[in-house]
Amino acid sequence: MARDLNKVMLTGHLGADPEMRFTPQGSAVTTFRVASNRSWKSGDGIQHDDTEWFRIVAWDKLAEICNEYLKKGTRVYIEGRLQTRSWEDRNTGEKRYMTEVVAQDMIILTPKGDRIPSAEADDLEVQAVGSVPRRAPSPIAPSESIANGPARSGAPRVPGRNMPQPVESEDDLPF
């Protein structure tokens, strides 16, 4: 039997700073809105622009990471699933609906130099796809290289096809 798929992938900019709260059970939940733009030309050559707003909900560790590292204007990639909730309006008694993206992964797309670093995060970097922050790697000693790994006794190591290339400076990092 075939499995169904509910997957959302989007890029855009945060419209406001994220808001984090905790459930009565202690789970962190962070919400924020992302604006995703698209442009197209109509048949008569007129340029059109459209903005779609998405409500994003992140849970647990990803919620904490989003709250700590995202701010208004940050460009992000969000991957998750669509979820629609319903409730009864207290004032009118009408049934209300809200569709949101439950984030499973997040990548910050705004270059590191364009973000305002917090005092605590100066030596931290966020790994892609909502991973836990980690300390930046220490500088490579002259006897080591990124492609060949640490110098070892014995036969020299031949770099593989998919080995990362050396980075000239921190400015070349994508985050």
From TrEMBL:
Alphabetized Pfam families for the sequence: SSB (PF00436)
Keywords from the named record: DNA damage, DNA recombination, DNA repair, DNA replication, DNA-binding
Keyword Iron-sulfur: no
GO cellular component, as recorded: nucleoid
Keyword match DNA-binding: yes
Gene3D superfamilies in the cross-refs: Nucleic acid-binding proteins (2.40.50.140)
UniProt motif (Important for interaction with partner proteins) ranges: 170-175
A Gene Ontology molecular function term of the record: single-stranded DNA binding
Region Disordered, annotated ranges: 130-175
GO biological processes: DNA recombination; DNA repair; DNA replication
InterPro entries (UniProt xref): NA-bd_OB-fold (IPR012340), Primosome_PriB/ssb (IPR000424), ssDNA-bd (IPR011344)
Protein purpose: Plays an important role in DNA replication, recombination and repair. Binds to ssDNA and to an array of partner proteins to recruit them to their sites of action during DNA metabolism.
Subunit structure: Homotetramer.
Protein name as it appears in the record: Single-stranded DNA-binding protein
